[in-house]
Amino acid sequence: MAKVSVYNMDGKQVEELELNDSIFGIEIKNHLMHMSVVQQLANKRQGTQSAKTRAEVRGGGRKPWRQKGTGRARIGSIRAPHWTGGGVVFAPKPRDYSFKLNKKEKRIALKSALSAKVADGKFIVLDELTLDGIKTKDMIKVLDNLSVKKALICINENNKNVLLSARNIANVATAQTNTINVYDILKYDTFVTTKAAVATIEEVYA
């Protein structure tokens, strides 16, 4: 089993923790991580863009001039695509960009992302993460103690003090164990979590 150091909020190592290799030590599947990220971004798209084709643009019903004899190029409508004010050739229309991934593929993609962080030494475990109040400077101090600049902080429960203290810090995001996703794990350099959160992840995804 892979082992990681467990730190306290002062950045000092207090113990070591063995990780479940079936979650944090699997063979990394880059293509599944890529598919998961693409799916998440695609599912966020509104797909409401719309433009008019030449059939939908107002006007242009009458032929501007006769077909022959004027010396000018033949034209059937002033709303032709190559005219100013004309329609769009392949006009975008409202559509649904979302697609589905199998549950097994999603699970392997998430495990691959977690395993990649462990393999890169970007997986930091705290013995606990508790703050007395909502203080951004206290959270910054904890991250500085861990030498972390861009991090995803994963906690086990809805800890209001931690969530609100980290909210205004640039390049820092928070998530609970039931909301972590491949995109956020890969987006932030370091995955910071707690022993309790690791136990929950191992219980849910084992």
Would you write up a description of this structure?
This is Large ribosomal subunit protein uL4. One of its GO terms (cellular component) is ribonucleoprotein complex. There is one protein chain. With 206 residues, this protein is of the alpha/beta class. The chain has 2 domains: 3-45 and 98-205, Ribosomal protein L4/L1 (Ribosomal Protein L4, Chain: A, 3-Layer(aba) Sandwich), CATH 3.40.1370; 48-96, no CATH class. The protein contains 7 helices and 6 strands; from the N terminus they run E-E-H-H-H-E-H-E-H-E-H-E-H. The chain has helices at 21-24, 30-44, 103-119, 136-145, 160-166, 182-187, 195-205, and strands at residues 3-7, 13-18, 123-126, 151-155, 172-176, 190-194. Helix 2 crosses helix 3 and helix 4 (136-145) crosses helix 5 (160-166). The two termini are 14 Å apart.
Segments where pLDDT lies below 50 for 5+ residues?
Answer: none
How confident overall, as mean pLDDT? 94
CATH homologous superfamily of the largest domain - what is it? Ribosomal protein L4/L1
Q: Return the string of H and E elements.
A: EEHHHEHEHEHEH
CATH topology of the largest domain: the name is: Ribosomal Protein L4, Chain: A
Globular, elongated, flat, extended or rod-shaped: what is the shape? elongated
Helix percentage:
25-40%
Strand coverage percent: 5-15%
The number of domains: 2
